[in-house]
UniProtKB/TrEMBL annotation, chain A:
<dbReference type="GO" id="GO:0005886">
    <property type="term" value="C:plasma membrane"/>
</dbReference>
<feature type="transmembrane region" description="Helical">
    <location>
        <begin position="197"/>
        <end position="218"/>
    </location>
</feature>
<dbReference type="GO" id="GO:0055085">
    <property type="term" value="P:transmembrane transport"/>
</dbReference>
<protein>
    <submittedName>
        <fullName>Carbohydrate ABC transporter permease</fullName>
    </submittedName>
</protein>
<feature type="transmembrane region" description="Helical">
    <location>
        <begin position="21"/>
        <end position="42"/>
    </location>
</feature>
<dbReference type="InterPro" id="IPR050901">
    <property type="entry name" value="BP-dep_ABC_trans_perm"/>
</dbReference>
<keyword id="KW-0812">Transmembrane</keyword>
<feature type="transmembrane region" description="Helical">
    <location>
        <begin position="119"/>
        <end position="141"/>
    </location>
</feature>
<keyword id="KW-1003">Cell membrane</keyword>
From TrEMBL, chain B:
<comment type="similarity">
    <text>Belongs to the ABC transporter superfamily.</text>
</comment>
<dbReference type="InterPro" id="IPR027417">
    <property type="entry name" value="P-loop_NTPase"/>
</dbReference>
<dbReference type="InterPro" id="IPR003439">
    <property type="entry name" value="ABC_transporter-like_ATP-bd"/>
</dbReference>
<dbReference type="InterPro" id="IPR012340">
    <property type="entry name" value="NA-bd_OB-fold"/>
</dbReference>
<dbReference type="GO" id="GO:0016887">
    <property type="term" value="F:ATP hydrolysis activity"/>
</dbReference>
<protein>
    <submittedName>
        <fullName>ABC transporter ATP-binding protein</fullName>
    </submittedName>
</protein>
<dbReference type="Pfam" id="PF00005">
    <property type="entry name" value="ABC_tran"/>
</dbReference>
<dbReference type="GO" id="GO:0008643">
    <property type="term" value="P:carbohydrate transport"/>
</dbReference>
<keyword id="KW-0067">ATP-binding</keyword>
Length: 281, 346
């Protein structure tokens, strides 16, 4: 009797245990997927050149800052780093500056061609950058925008803008229009209502799309390599100068690329999660 | 001091006409309820008065000032929304203070008004909370307090109680009536709930298909409906209607009964009576009983009169059986007559 009554219970317990195991295993796998490359990158960047090529690997890095300091002092790195930050920041400002109002207009107003506009915003991503890069380079040289941070930021903005517009659109659509109307009846102009009510509620989402724009620009290499010569961004600079460099310098360069992006995301992370007890829509 | 005058206001959405040339004058401190089924244009009319919607034509005057070209903030109004619209990123205190800060009132005055209205709405202990930590009823109180703190000339309410559960609605209804009467504001209140309308209003404006069918005191609207729609919409159960044929000039035959009525050239008009305005026995309308529902204070009897449905409210002591043939005598002073073509009262 006991065996009969117990077995289904045992079976469900087994199934639950297997389910838990699967969950933990999947989570672990995903963590490893994301963290292992970063780990290897950091370890190798913080090791001396001999240790980078040695086998087996040490689990903890030796905190030899030789390759990093060599890399930092490598001619042009500091400037490329500064260019990258500048271009990414400009891209972020432009993408949000244009994207947020466009998203607001899409969610709050009805205008002719609204559907077509939404479609076209997305369509801009259909043109491969290599196809556009050469004509762009010619145009930039003619207008004097070539080899400038603002010129490259404009190109990166076109890459980031569709996402900024669509994220802002869904963000503003998720905020009840009555909140805005209530603000108007309480003495606000449209702009004041936006600033005092809608913007604080949309801030987490706007921060998310800002981070997105920043990372798109930070990681972009093709346009950067084609459109800049003197004022290279870090990615373009690394592509150009590290191709032939020794392995340990490549790791140092990789770390220099990854770490600022990580720091930036870490800095705005609180806006990415729920605020004021309401979930980030 | 704010009288509201709505003059020939119409609203068209593309080919659809939501409001046809509506006229309504609301005197200072009056409580007017716009009552109607959903889609009758009552919320559109309220939003036009608030300035959240532009009218296609017509004028809106508040306190002797034409306001239909002004934005909501310059109209001297405050509004309570159906879904409360309490700002989720501000505390209850800052929600109530929001409009006062926009007016740039000194901090001392802001605090005084917030505390006074919070006390009035019994939410003093919630001032530090956020909207996410409040129940529906509490949010409703915050929304009303926020409107009252503005000390507006006019308060506009768009179905403020419809998201509350029945018991809470009853409680808030009585409270709102007291608070609004004390605040001496002019109020326009939109609802589809006739009991709410009857209990709150000084005057009910019954709306149907984009028109105000009747605007009168609750008792007047109930007793003397200006149109067939009003009689059939207000009252639960609603008014009974029976076709009447002309017998002689000024006398009409209704279900075998000859009654004196209005003088009219028409061969047929409609007789109408409220369910509670008939007495069983004596000389009356011939009725066959279908359903009997004893409700305690009285008994609801559904019968068949001349092939049509007829509801009567009788004394609970009346001994009625299903299948009985009853004689229901209408109280002569409560009989109403309607023109079947225009549906207006005769």
């Amino acid at each position: 009797m006991n065996a009969i009554t117990e077995s289904p219970v045992a079976a469900t317990a087994d199934a639950r245990k297997a389910g838990d195991l699967l969950l933990v295993a999947t989570a672990l796998l995903l963590c490893v997927w994301v963290l292992l490359p970063i780990y290897l990158l950091i370890v190798n960047a913080l090791s001396s050149p001999d240790q980078v090529t040695a086998f087996p690997k040490r689990f903890f890095p030796s905190f030899d800052l030789g390759s990093l300091s060599f890399f930092i002092n490598f001619a042009g790195v500091a400037r490329a780093l500064w260019n990258s930050v500048l271009v990414a920041t400009l891209t972020m400002i432009l993408a949000i500056g244009f994207g947020a109002p466009a998203g607001y207009a899409l969610s709050r107003f009805d205008f002719p061609g609204k559907g077509a506009f939404r479609f076209l915003v997305l369509m801009t991503r259909a043109f491969p950058l290599p196809l556009l890069a050469l004509p762009l380079a010619v145009m930039f040289i003619r207008t004097g925008l070539d080899d400038t941070a603002i010129g490259l930021a404009l190109v990166h903005t076109t890459l980031a803008l569709p996402f900024a517009v669509l994220i802002a659109f869904s963000l503003f659509s998720g905020i009840p229009v009555e909140l805005e109307e209530a603000a108007w009846t309480l003495g606000c102009t449209r702009w004041q209502a936006f600033r005092k009510v809608i913007l604080p509620l949309a801030l987490p989402g706007i921060a998310a799309s800002a981070v997105f724009a920043f990372t798109i620009s930070w990681n972009e290499v093709f346009a950067a390599a084609v459109l800049t010569i003197e004022n290279r961004t870090l990615t373009a600079f690394l592509l150009q100068s590290l191709g032939e460099s020794p392995l340990y310098l490549k790791f140092a360069g990789g770390a220099a690329l990854v770490v600022p992006a990580l720091i930036f995301i870490f800095a705005v992370r609180k806006y990415l999660f729920a605020m004021w007890g309401i979930a980030n829509r | 001091m704010a009288e509201i005058a709505i003059k020939g206001v119409a609203k068209r959405f593309g080919g659809f006409t939501a409001l046809h040339q509506v006229d309504l004058t609301i005197s200072d401190q009056e409580f007017v309820v716009l009552l109607g089924a959903s889609g009758c244009g009552k919320t559109t009319l309220l939003r036009i008065v608030a300035g959240l919607e532009r009218s296609s034509q017509g004028e809106v005057w508040i306190g002797g000032r034409r306001v239909d070209h002004l934005p909501p903030r310059e109209r001297g109004i405050a509004m309570v929304f159906q879904n409360y619209a309490v700002f989720p990123h501000l505390t209850v205190f800052e929600n109530i203070a929001f409009g006062l800060r926009m007016k740039k009132l000194p901090q001392q005055e802001v605090e005084r008004r917030v505390n006074r209205t919070a006390e009035l709405m019994h939410i003093e202990q919630l001032l530090k909370r956020y909207s996410g930590q409040l129940s529906g009823g509490q949010r409703q109180r915050v929304a009303v307090a926020r409107a009252l703190a503005m000390e507006p000339d006019v308060i506009l309410m768009d179905e403020p109680l419809s998201n509350l559960d029945a018991l809470l609605r009853l409680e808030m209804r009585a409270e709102l009536k007291g608070v609004l009467a004390a605040s001496k504001t002019t109020t326009i209140y939109v609802t589809h709930d006739q009991v709410e309308a009857m209990s709150l209003a000084d005057r009910i404006a019954v709306m149907h298909q984009g028109r105000i069918v009747q605007a009168a005191s609750p008792v007047e609207v109930y007793r003397n409906p200006a149109a067939r729609f009003v009689g059939s919409f207000i009252g639960n159960p609603p008014m009974n209607f029976i076709p009447a044929a002309k017998a002689a000039n000024g006398s009409w035959t209704v279900a075998g009964l000859t009654l004196s009525g209005p003088k009219s050239d028409k061969p047929r008009i409609e007789f109408a009576i409220r369910p509670e305005d008939v007495d069983a026995g004596g000389e009356g309308l011939r009725a066959t009983v279908h359903v009997i529902e004893p409700l305690g204070p009285h008994t609801l009897v559904t019968c068949d009169v001349e092939g049509g449905l007829f509801r009567a409210i009788l004394d609970s002591n009346a001994s009625v059986q299903v299948g009985d043939d009853l004689r229901l005598a209408p109280k002569p002073d409560r009989i109403r007559w309607f023109d079947p073509e225009t549906t207006n009262a005769l």
